[in-house]
């Protein structure tokens, strides 16, 4: 049984007989997309973990792409009716959009077990544990026999618009060069199944021999990594034309470690 942002008003805090609960089926998975408090935030979705596994994409409260200005949202790509509905309850309705995308992407929407969204964002819950991570949505039940806790809270990030799934990588860059410079470092991943855009790993003072780490959520699962493109740029014109390189770049895949 899959709960798509089960309702908060009149249901949160009530006995399990009147709301969705893990006793309702052999396996209950829940996607929380609008779990901010109803007052004052107009959250329509229930906050606590109530299934065997509970997914909190983007933290479960505010979905990317839902903060667009009302005019662009109402005159939506999917038509005026869809846009108007999204304007009123965009976060709440993301749950079924994620679910429908999950059918097309069996390897997408990996949920990382974590105590909180902040810890997930800072990389504390990366990579997946040895038993792997469940996939939010249609294929969540593949994880059914691997659960050994009462409640399992899972976090992940999604895109702003279709297609929604993102794949998480840890990228570590050790710089080489003669002198420290100011600027930024970008990295793009190339793989057997596709390439990513450029992601900023760090900016500010760049010191040779220092190591910089970033967690990136890529719009494509690159598969086996075949190449990494490294770019750095001065923030301003430097007449000494400093040179900076990458001594090593390490890429860790969340899914298979």
TrEMBL record:
One Pfam family of this chain: Lipase
Primary subcellular site in the record, as a coarse category: other
Cellular location(s): Cell projection, Neuron projection; Secreted; Zymogen granule membrane
GO biological process: lipid catabolic process
GO cellular component term, pick one: extracellular space
Domain PLAT: 167-257
MF annotations from Gene Ontology: galactolipase activity; lipoprotein lipase activity
InterPro entries registered for this protein in UniProt: AB_hydrolase_fold, Lipase, PLAT/LH2_dom, PLAT/LH2_dom_sf, TAG_lipase
Stated name of the protein: Pancreatic lipase-related protein 2
Native organism: Orthonyx spaldingii (Chowchilla)
Gene coding for it: Pnliprp1
